[in-house]
């Protein structure tokens, strides 16, 4: 069952792609017929180029050195994984296709093709838009923010469900924070055999952690003033029945 909440302002595809790239800690690289996975091996320039630091004896390094320039094509894959343990934790996947070039003991990668796959489908991102886009200002801090909200403030998460339409909460057994960006907070509503997401928009974008705190407090104030729907415990009983 999908959400029935109206979706509002959200990051565009280019911004979300840059956010996935900024927050990712690992990546898979396919080049020269070899596929290797690396953790903590990449950095990103302001223009979205990727610098890979890999062992000199790796297949990837050998491919970049030995293949002719026209054959030094590579594909980099990044997964956007929800930091909170929800169902279907892969929120998005990002594929970058381009060429690898050796540079000062590392490998430079300039994407020529960018594909972002989200739950709503895949979209081809214009490389120029990708290069000029900037990551969401909360992207790097998001994991810590969401895990803290889920682990230390479950009461606040439950209070936020007062802002969710009752039909979206039907048969819900668990609600957890799924994502946050400068435009709003997304909740994952899990049922016995399905799940859906609802987005709670901020009244204005949050450009830093201080503004995010104010926006979340504003949502909680709205929730406190709203009528309280059935509790999740009651919904759990209904769903199990």
Describe what this molecule looks like in 3D:
InterPro entries: DUF2470, Haem_oxidase_HugZ-like_sf. This is DUF2470 domain-containing protein. The protein is α+β, with helices and mostly antiparallel strands and 241 residues long. Helix content is 29%, strand content 34%. The strands form 2 sheets. Strands 1, 2, 3, 4, 5, 6, 7 and 8 form an 8-stranded antiparallel β-sheet that branches. Strands 9-10-11 form a 3-stranded antiparallel β-sheet. A hairpin with a 2-residue loop joins strand 1 and strand 2. The longest helix is centred in the C-terminal third of the chain and has 17 residues. The radius of gyration is 21 Å and the shape is elongated. The chain starts with 12 loop residues before the first helix and ends with a helix. The C terminus is likely disordered.
Features:
241 residues, alpha+beta, elongated, disordered C terminus
Q: What structural class results from the helix and strand content?
A: alpha+beta
Strand content: 25-35%
Query: Quick one: how many beta strands?
Result: 11
Radius of gyration: 21 Å
Protein name: DUF2470 domain-containing protein
Domain DUF2470: 143-219
Organism: Streptomyces graminearus
InterPro entries: DUF2470, Haem_oxidase_HugZ-like_sf
């Amino acid at each position: 069952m999908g959400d029935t909440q109206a979706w509002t302002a959200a990051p565009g595809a280019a911004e979300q792609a840059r956010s996935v790239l900024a927050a990712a800690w690992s990546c898979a690289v396919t080049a020269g017929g070899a596929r290797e996975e690396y953790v903590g091996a990449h950095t990103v320039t302001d223009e979205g180029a990727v610098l890979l630091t890999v062992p000199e004896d790796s297949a990837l390094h050998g491919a970049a050195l030995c293949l002719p320039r026209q054959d030094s094509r590579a594909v980099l894959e990044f997964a956007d994984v929800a930091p909170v343990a929800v169902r279907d934790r892969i929120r998005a996947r990002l594929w970058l296709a381009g060429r690898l070039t050796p540079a000062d003991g590392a490998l430079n990668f300039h994407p020529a093709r960018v594909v972002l796959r989200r739950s709503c489908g895949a979209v081809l991102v214009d490389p120029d838009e990708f290069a000029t886009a900037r990551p969401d200002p909360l992207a790097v801090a998001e994991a810590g923010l969401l895990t803290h909200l889920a682990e230390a403030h479950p009461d606040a998460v439950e209070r936020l469900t007062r802002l969710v339409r009752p039909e979206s909460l039907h048969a819900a057994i668990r609600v957890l924070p799924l994502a946050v960006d400068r435009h709003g907070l997304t909740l994952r509503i899990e049922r016995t055999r399905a799940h859906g997401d609802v987005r709670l928009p901020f009244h204005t974008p949050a450009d830093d952690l201080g503004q995010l705190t104010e926006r979340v407090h504003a949502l909680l104030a709205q929730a406190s003033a709203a009528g309280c729907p059935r509790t999740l415990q009651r919904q759990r009983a209904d769903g199990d029945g």
